[in-house]
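Thought: the user wants the 3D structure for the chain below. I'll pass the sequence to the structure tool as-is, report back what it returns, then summarize two notable features.
Action: structure_tool
Action Input:
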Amino acid sequence: MSYYEPLVYIVPPEEEGFILKTILQKRLMVSRKLLSRIKLTEQGITVNGVRQYINIKVQAGDRVEIRMEEEESEDILPQELPLYILHEDEHLLILAKESGIIVHPTHGHYVNTIANGVVHHWQQAGVTCRFRPVHRLDQETSGVLAIAKTPYVHQQISEQMIQHQVKKEYLALVWGNFDDAKGTVNEPIDRDPEQPHVRIVTPTGYNAVTHYEVMEQFKHAALVRIWLETGRTHQIRVHMRHLGHPLLGDKMYTLPEFEQHEWSAEVSGRLHRQALHAFRLGFVHPGTREWTDYEAPLPSDLSDLRIWLQETD
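Observation:
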């Protein structure tokens, strides 16, 4: 049985006499589900190199270690694909995702996904990991994508997301002129009963909060920085449409006044997807316990459109 590198905690003097389970859950922040899993393996939980039950009392200076078994994504076909790696360590792989590529294989779409490329990358590097993205990006959305290498890392970042501690920032090119340079959209979102794949603002929907700041205002459009408190499906696209500022290139959530404007045809010829880019992702790194930010530069299609918008002002 092979394990990932252990997570280590040295018991300080003030915690002498604590129950091992308390150390695991309150200091190493191991979830109940993960704790149930690792305590069944031979080297899952050790104190000073010896396997222990979680109800023992620890002493000052004890070296507590937890280990997880290595895993593979056996159902994902390895495929050599270009990956734009922003950062990689034993805990995480951070990518700059291109627009147009799906993150995970789906029914009828088993290759040409981020997962296929990552599994191949790890295979070539001799790394044994299961593909675990910690969040999602739509096929057309570009930007920072974080992939956990162990179930512990996935659990840690997922918990931060539940507690709204993960900072996700986006850049979007949207239609129209803003009256206010900053603002917040606090409107519930749910499925459109007539088109289940489409989301709408509705009083009976789920809580959704989006903040925005206009970075550049052009003649007919704006570059907007957006950050989220919640993570509803299509949240940014729905909320910006609700404001009257749909994303350029977004055919699902466009507005008639944009489609009818003579300028829209020029935009359609220059942009072939929604103008949304996840440019920054920040969270407490599960390995270092320090706050980390990862940024992906604006891709060429959006950068070129931005320059064109500046020149046509």
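Final Answer: Structure generated. The first helix runs from residue 20 to 27. Residues 76 and 107 are 12 Å apart (CA to CA).
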